[in-house]
Write a structure and sequence with these properties.
With 196 residues, the chain is an alpha/beta fold. The chain has one domain: Rossmann fold (3-Layer(aba) Sandwich), CATH 3.40.50. Helix content is 24%, strand content 21%. The protein has a 7-stranded mixed beta sheet with strand order 2-1-3-4-6-5-7. Helix 2 packs across helix 3. The radius of gyration is 16 Å and the shape is globular.
Length: 196
């Protein structure tokens, strides 16, 4: 019975009793960022505000993008002690405006990260989120926003696995993930596409 309850909590994302990572830190598998870049183009610079150990930033740089990286915690990469959700003292000249924001936000703060990104990005926002993020009354208004609209969702056709260390992303995970893209210039209804 206990094993069934633990499995159910894993499936729905409640890992409070299962040793959830501090600050919801789960490094983004490289194939997830590569999937984004092969499907969506970004013009101008990019800010990764929850950069962790640089997993997303390094892939973006490898594809020739100008990337600024910061994090509230010190994982040995980017500017540290930068709380993306607390603008007091955060936005130096480097951060007052940015063309694009791309990140894998802490799951429990994803809505707040999106709303904050809409205030500071000039072009696009890309968030790596659980597909189930589409659900929820609290999120409905944000999804219906026409000033910085949702353009598309790139759903992964296979499950992405978050290994505990590099090189352990071999088997699919239990939760479906997608890239959610907001584009300030987009007009029309959001659409869905797949990343194979």
């Amino acid at each position: 019975m206990k094993e069934s309850a633990d499995l159910a909590r894993k499936i729905v994302g409640d890992n409070s009793r299962l040793g959830r990572s501090a600050s919801d830190f789960y490094p983004t598998p490289h194939e997830a960022t590569i999937g984004l870049i092969l499907n969506e183009k970004f013009e101008g610079n990019i800010w990764e505000p929850a950069c962790g150990k640089g997993d997303i930033s390094e892939i973006l740089k490898g594809y020739g993008y100008d990337v600024k990286s910061s994090d509230i915690n010190d994982y040995g990469y980017g500017e540290i002690n930068k709380d993306f959700l607390n603008t007091d003292g955060l936005f130096s000249n480097n951060y007052k405006t940015v063309d694009n924001i791309i990140t894998n936000p802490p799951f429990n703060l994803a809505l707040e990260f999106i709303l904050q990104s809409k205030m500071y990005a000039d072009k696009k926002i890309a968030m790596f989120l659980k597909t189930s993020f589409l659900e929820g009354v609290k999120r409905y208004g944000m999804f219906k926003d026409k000033k910085f609209p949702l353009k598309c969702i790139y759903q992964f056709s296979k499950r992405i696995s978050f290994g505990k260390s590099e090189g352990t992303h071999k088997n699919g995970g239990m939760i479906a993930f997608a890239w959610f893209i907001w584009d300030k210039e987009y007009e029309g209804k959001p659409y869905i596409n797949w990343i194979l």
